[in-house]
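Anyone opening a protein record will find just a pair of labelled lines. A complete record is shown below as an example:
=====
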Amino acid sequence: MSAASAKDTAPPKDTAPAKDAAPPKDAAPDRVDFGRTVWAWRRAGLALRVERRTVLVCAALAVTVAALGVLTLGTGSIRLTPAQVLSALFDPDADPRDRLVVVTWRLPRLLFAVLCGAALAISGALFQSLTRNPLGSPDVIGFASGSYAGASVVMLVLGTANYLAVASGSLIGGALTALLVYLLAYRKGLAPFRLIIVGIAVGAFLSSLTSMLLLSVNPQQAMLAATWGAGSLSGLGFEQLRPTAAVFVVLLICSAAVARPLVHLELGDDAAVALGVRAQRARLAATLTGVALTALVTAAVGPISFIALAAPQIAQRLTRGSTTVRIGPAALTGAAVLTGADFIAQRVDLPVGVVTVCVGGAYLAWLLARRYAGRRG
């Protein structure tokens, strides 16, 4: 055999592709790009993934709340510069007069606005995810009316205006209303649309009951209950803030625990069950947590409308998320909205609940018109 023929019949050597060779056009990509930048953090076997836009939105909302807070603490009958406000907050050796105005008089009201706005927004996010409807907020469904009715019974029937008694009545009223709505709406499961309809009916009945109580007592008692029912942050101090903040922290942890099952339930019960979610238990837990958040706010400052309705929707649009159950953005949006509303309320000398009703009513009309136009189209 010749050298040429041996060379021709030798088996070809395995050749490795070049490292820089481009993959074929029809090859599947390593990952799918949904147009969202995600930051990943991994330490000690733990992994955390967050979207960059969500982080930036939360940071912007936190800065907005802080700026509104400094503006609120520095304006009023006694005006202070931002430097004086910050000095009074963080410098123990600051002017005692400034510390009295900022820390003792104005700071509790600001903290109540932040806390109540966050609580209402989280409650609204839970219920809007639970009902899969932007109108499914606790003030529309009627749970806020239940809390108000419970507090009204304590003030008008039992004849006591003690803060702890009124708060207890509000919590009990909200819990009983939630139980009643749940029992009436439950038919081999809890349908979201049925929950909204039953909640609206029960809320209308309780509002009528509260109006009847107001008309059946003397004008002084009626004025006291009506003033409280307008929702006001004035006259509150650290004595009321401490227990309210402690309960809010507990409910915040509960909200974080029920948020993930609710996201799965938005995919449908079959998909949620396949992922290991107990649908009815998750709905009951979310309902109880949302009602408790609403009742907490109503017990502390009275009913404040439309924050629970608007804040989750605003947060969803800011983050461009696919679900309203985003506890952080919703809470910060609610805090910013209620802090801004309270700033306006102080300037015009009105309860903050009146301001939120005026702004929220316009938002509700726009939301209904938008949904109706979408169905017509």
Q: What stands out?
A: The CA atoms of residues 31 and 146 lie 49 Å apart.
